[in-house]
Each structure stands twice: as C-alpha cells, then as structure tokens.
C-alpha cells in the first residue's frame, strides 16, 4: 500500500537538498529561535525572516503553494487564540475596536497577541516544513545524532519511522477485513470491535518487535547500534551556516 | 571428519515455551557447498529447525556449526558464520535505508568503513540492486524487499546461508529472478520451503520433516521419483515426475 510520505519532496534535486542535514537543522532552528524570541513589534525582522525562508524555498525548487498549504496546520491554534481576544480588555490605554456585537469589543492588546501567535507559529512551521521537505527522514535522524542527540532517541525514532508504515498497513487491512464482514450496527457494538482491533494491533506489533529483535541478533547486534562516520562539512554547508550569525545580528539590531 | 561438516546436528529436540513439542530427535549433517531443502507441511518444524542454526532458538541436543557448538558463549561467532534470512522481509529490514540495512551486519562485525562500503556494493550487485542504497524499505516491491533481505546477510560473507521461505509471497517472475540469484551464491545453503519446484531448482538434497521429526533425507532425484513419499506429503507426484524427466540434471546420472 502507498502512503503520503512524511518527507514529501525530500528527493528533489537542488543545492539545498544536497547540503548536509546538520547544517540545515542548525539554520532552520536558528530561524525558529530568532522568530520566537523577537517582540511582536519587530515587523522588519519578521519580514526579513520570511523573505529568507522564501528564498531558501525557491532555491530548493519547492512549490510555494504546497508549502503554504502545509502551513495551514497552525490554523486550529490560531483559532483558539482568536477566540480569546474579545475577553482581553485589560488595557484601556491603547483603546479597543467596538464590534457592536452585544458590547463585545476587540482590544488592541488582544490583536497584538493574535499577531504574535500568527507570525511566530507560521514562521516556525514554515521552517520545519522546509527542513523536512529538503531532508529525507533518515538523513534528518542521522543529522540529529551527529549533533549530539542521544542515540536511544534517534534509534527509537528511526524504528518508529520504519514501522509506522507497516502499522498503518496492518490497520488498513484489519479495517478492510472488518468492513467486508458487514461491520455496522449500534454504536455500543462498534466500540467493542474497535477495542478488539486495538488489542490485536498491539499484540501484532509486540510480536513484530520480537521478530525484528531476533533478526537484529541474527546479524550480530549486541546491544549498541553500530555507528557510521559523518562526512566532513563542505563549502556549501559553511555558506549555508552563515545564516546563523546573520540572523543573530538581525535579532540584536532589529529586535 | 567433524571439522569439514558445515552443520552437525545430533539428537536435537525442542519444545515451544507453552510445551508443544516442535522438534524431536533430529539428526542432520550438511557438508560444504551443499544445498539442502527442508520440506514439510505447515507446522512440521521447518522454521524452528532453521532458527537453531544460529542459536535464535536453542533446544536440547547438539548443534555444531563449522566446528563451533551453538552455545550462549559462542553466539557472536556463530552469527558471523550463519546468515539467517527470516521469512518476512518486514522483520528482516528494520533500518531507514537499504544501505543501512545491508551495512548493519558488517557494522556489527566491527569492520572499517571502506570495507563495509565495498561489501554493501558487492551484496547489492549480486542481488541486482545497484543504486538502491538510499531507498527506504517501505517503498520497495515485495520482490525487491526479498532481495534486499538476502543482501543483508550476503554482506556478512557468512559461510552458511539459512533461508526461510525465500520465494514466499512472490509472483512467478519475481520468484524466478530470486531463484536465479540464490543459485549464483556459492555458499552452503539450507532452504526452508514448501514449494517442491523451488527445492528442485535450488537444492540437490531434500530433508523431509513431519510433526517435528525427520522422515527422510534423500537426494532430489530420489525424492522426485518416490511417488509414495511425495503423495504422503501432499506433493503432486506427476508434476515431480515431469520435472525429473525434463531436467538435464538427471539425464546423465539416471540409473537405467
């Protein structure tokens, strides 16, 4: 069965895709940190950050429309914040905007909070999407590992990546088998079947884990995952890493 | 004499943890460059026997691989000597990329980077998978997965290959391709299968198991002619006869 890949577009050919994962992780996380730590009023800084990210996306030959669509995942969070705006009336100083809806008014403070959340979450999510669209998952894991992420975490993540697809397949097959045997009826009956399915899925995964472990032992596994050496960073990576001091500079002078 | 046996099993018995008997008093000797098929119905103990070859399972009795007894202390050495390929490639392939999977065994053996790279290239070449290094296992077809699974042990240069249902789940073309690749591998092979045609294509010798016991140990040619034995195991005796007749392998050595 086919799945939507977690790392869609990560196989595209571009100068950004060819960079070492470590450089990309560092730069994109700098983007996020700078974005998150800036005051909401630093409009110039935000626009520069956005421009920088868009420039990278263009260099990476990624379809902008697709990326922007993915940024929409932040919408639910924005919605929650937006809902709270009318109730943030603490500051009378800036004045509010009366909506004329039963005395509800929008406060200036509230709007700043909304803006703060909108811009920071959008920039953050955009950075992460760029990272995952320019770096394949295995490379990403290896990069994290080389940057000092504990081996046990990267190992678990890589197993999760490998087996999530199989688990999803297994779930689909079970669902299909259930549906072809006329699944239906009352809600109460459904919960029971779903419960059984979850149990079965757990048992199957458990047994799969045992078999995988046996396969690992058979190839000489003895408790520690073997390590491969990292390649050295080239000129491209060094140039790309220049983003980091540049962004820090911007943060200090424009923040 | 012991030293040149690849496999030397004596009085091997094994019960599953719940007490069900799985193997009973098995004797088996395999010599270098032999290719032995283990045949039998479902639940006969074929895979269980295979898992004893590298100590994945350990029963009572004697199992000696290339002069080294399969015991807890020798497992590291045994697993370098025996390349075991599990039935499901989803169990065999657990790394993010094909390269990582094929390099996993050699990495555990503590080889240096260049050597590992060469071994991976060679193993993938033998399996016809050049250029697959960066692919993820879940993006491969079943046939490709099976071949990568084999490559993961070929890269270890094991002296004995133990394959569990290598052609299981494959279409005829994929199955044919895999059989050809396996045939090209010179190592000693023990192959569990329930397809007579696969056994015939890959092995000169057949070991028949039934309910955990070894029933017969004979050459492929003898098996194909033994109508009573074939029918007892549910094989198509006419098909077996036809395979025997058409095969050039038996033309010269046929008794009459």
Protein architecture, described:
The complex is a heterodimer of chains A (255) and B (256). Chain A is mainly alpha-helical. Chain A has two domains: 15-145 and 232-254, no CATH class; 151-218, no CATH class. Chain A has helices at 15-18, 21-37, 43-59, 64-71, 75-84, 108-134, 137-146, 151-179, 187-218, 235-241, 243-254, and strands at 96-101, 104-107. The longest helix of chain A is centred in the C-terminal third of the chain and has 32 residues, at 187-218. The mean pLDDT of chain A is 82. In chain B, the strands form two sheets. A six-stranded mixed sheet of chain B has the order 6-7-8-3-9-10. In chain B, helix 4 packs across helix 5, helix 4 packs parallel to helix 6 and helix 5 (113-126) packs across helix 6 (142-154). The two termini of chain B are 33 Å apart. The longest helix of chain B is centred in the middle third of the chain and has 14 residues, at 113-126. Chain B has helices at residues 46-51, 75-81, 89-92, 98-108, 113-126, 142-154, 172-183, 196-202, 220-225, 227-232, 237-246, and strands spanning 7-15, 21-30, 35-39, 60-65, 68-69, 82-85, 160-164, 188-192, 205-210, 213-219. Chain B has one domain (2-250): Rossmann fold. In chain B, a hairpin with a 2-residue loop joins strand 9 and strand 10 (213-219). The model of chain B has no long low-confidence stretch (mean pLDDT 91). The relative contact order of chain B is 0.16. By secondary structure, chain B is of the alpha/beta class. The A-B interface holds A 3, 136-138, 141, 158-159, 161-163, 165-166, 208, 211-212, 214-222, 226-229 and B 51, 54, 56, 75-76, 79-80, 82, 84, 86, 88, 90-97, 100, 103-105, 107-109, 113, 134, 136-138, 152-153, 156.
Short description:
Chain A is 68% helix and 4% strand. Chain A is mainly α.
Number of domains of chain B: 1
CATH topology of chain B: Rossmann fold
Mean pLDDT score of chain B:
91
Please indicate the percent range of residues of chain A in DSSP E strands (runs of 2 or more).
Answer: under 5%
Biggest chain pair contact, residues each? A-B, 28 and 34 residues
Looking at the chains present, what oligomeric state does this protein adopt? Answer: heterodimer
Give me the CATH architecture of chain B, please: 3-Layer(aba) Sandwich
Number of helices of chain B: 11
Helices of chain A, by number, come to 11
What distance separates the N and C termini of chain B? 33 Å
In total, the number of domains of chain A comes to 2
Shape of chain A: flat
What is the chain-wise order of helices and strands of chain A? HHHHHEEHHHHHH
Order of helices and strands of chain B: EEEHEEHEHHHHEHEHEEHHH
Classification by helices and strands of chain A: mainly alpha
Radius of gyration of chain B: 18 Å
Classify the helix fraction of chain A into a percent range.
55-70%
Strand content of chain B: 15-25%
């Amino acid at each position: 069965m086919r799945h939507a890949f977690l790392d869609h577009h990560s196989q595209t050919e571009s100068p950004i895709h060819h960079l070492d994962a470590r450089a990309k992780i560092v730069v994109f996380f700098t983007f996020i940190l700078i974005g998150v730590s800036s005051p909401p009023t630093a409009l110039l800084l935000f626009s520069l950050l956005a421009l920088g990210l868009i420039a990278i996306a263009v260099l990476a030959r990624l379809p902008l429309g697709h990326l922007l669509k993915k940024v929409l995942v932040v919408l639910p969070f924005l919605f929650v914040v937006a809902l709270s705006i009318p109730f943030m009336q603490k500051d009378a100083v800036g004045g509010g905007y009366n909506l004329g809806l039963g005395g509800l008014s929008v406060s200036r403070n509230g709007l700043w909070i909304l803006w703060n959340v909108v811009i920071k979450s959008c920039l953050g999510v955009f950075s992460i999407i760029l990272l995952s669209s320019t770096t394949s998952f295995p490379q990403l894991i290896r990069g994290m590992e080389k940057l000092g992420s504990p081996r046990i975490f990267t190992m678990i993540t890589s197993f999760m990546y490998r087996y999530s697809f199989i688990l999803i397949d297994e779930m689909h097959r079970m669902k299909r088998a259930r549906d072809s045997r006329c699944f239906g009826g009352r809600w109460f009956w459904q919960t029971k079947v779903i419960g059984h399915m979850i149990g079965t899925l757990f048992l199957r995964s458990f047994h799969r884990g045992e078999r995988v472990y046996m396969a690992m032992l058979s190839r000489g596994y003895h408790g520690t995952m073997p390590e491969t050496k990292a390649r050295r960073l080239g000129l491209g990576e060094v140039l790309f890493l220049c983003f980091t001091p540049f962004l820090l500079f911007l943060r200090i002078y424009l923040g | 004499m012991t030293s040149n046996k690849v496999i030397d099993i004596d009085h091997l018995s094994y019960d599953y943890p719940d007490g069900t008997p799985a193997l009973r008093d098995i004797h088996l000797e395999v010599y270098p460059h032999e290719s032995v098929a283990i045949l039998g119905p479902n639940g006969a103990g074929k895979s269980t026997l295979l898992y004893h070859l590298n100590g994945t399972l350990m029963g009572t009795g004697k199992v000696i691989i290339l002069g080294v007894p399969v015991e807890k202390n020798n497992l590291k050495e045994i697993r370098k000597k025996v390349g075991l390929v599990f039935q499901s490639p989803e169990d065999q392939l657990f790394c993010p990329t094909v390269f990582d999977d094929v390099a996993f065994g050699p990495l555990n053996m503590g080889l240096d980077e260049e050597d590992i790279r060469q071994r991976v290239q060679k193993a993938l070449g033998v399996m016809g998978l050049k250029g697959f290094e960066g692919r993820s296992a879940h993006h491969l077809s079943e046939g490709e997965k099976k071949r990568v699974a084999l490559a993961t042990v070929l890269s270890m240069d094991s002296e004995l290959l133990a394959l569990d249902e290598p052609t299981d789940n494959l279409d005829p073309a994929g199955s044919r391709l895999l059989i050809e690749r396996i045939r090209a591998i010179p190592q000693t092979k023990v192959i569990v299968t329930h397809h007579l045609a696969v056994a015939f294509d890959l092995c000169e010798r057949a070991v028949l198991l039934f309910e955990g016991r070894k029933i017969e140990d004979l050459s492929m040619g003898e098996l194909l002619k033994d109508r009573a034995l074939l029918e007892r195991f549910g094989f198509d005796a006419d098909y077996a006869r036809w395979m025997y007749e058409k095969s050039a392998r038996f033309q010269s050595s046929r008794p009459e």
